[in-house]
Amino acid sequence: MRFKPTHFRPLEAGARRALGDLEAEIMDQMWLCECASVRDIHQRLGYRRLAYTTVMTVMSRLADKGLLKKKKDGKHYDYTTSISRAEFEDSIARSLISGLAGSLGSVALASFVEGIEDERVLCELEELIREKRKQAK
Questions:
Q1: Low-confidence ranges of the chain (pLDDT < 70)
Q2: Which 3-state string (H, E, C) describes 56-89?
Q3: Which pTM was predicted?
Q4: Which of 26, 77, 112, 114 could form a disulfide with 70 if both were Cys (CB 3.0 to 4.6 A apart)?
Q5: Considering the domain boundaries, does residue 1 fall inside one?
Q6: Residue 108 and residue 95 in contact, taking contact as beta carbons nearer than 8 Å
Q7: Residue 81 burial (CB < 10 Å; 0-12/13-18/19+)?
């Protein structure tokens, strides 16, 4: 499953690039434990002094976005991650590149290549392009 970010904050780090601050903190905790209840996450974020219902609402919204799955367990829900951190980061990168290439075309691509200063990364990019062309044939 691929996450489709609705906004992107390039100056932020990690999940905060595509999620709100609290959403990102909750996802960071979920990626650490993989399965947790709202109470578990609320306790892990105790230093923030958040209302339990705030954490519950945000976790429900993360499930609506497809980042978490919820399963009823008695009176509460257990949440699991439905996407790994690597898949999440891949989705952000793909959406960003696709959006930039679609709206700015070759200007975006040229700027992307121009920004690469590491020769090793340029070689990797060349190899990826060769592989993509082979697949297209």
A1: 1-2
A2: HHHHHHHHHCCCEEEEEECCEEEEEECCCHHHHH
A3: 0.77
A4: 77
A5: no
A6: no
A7: buried
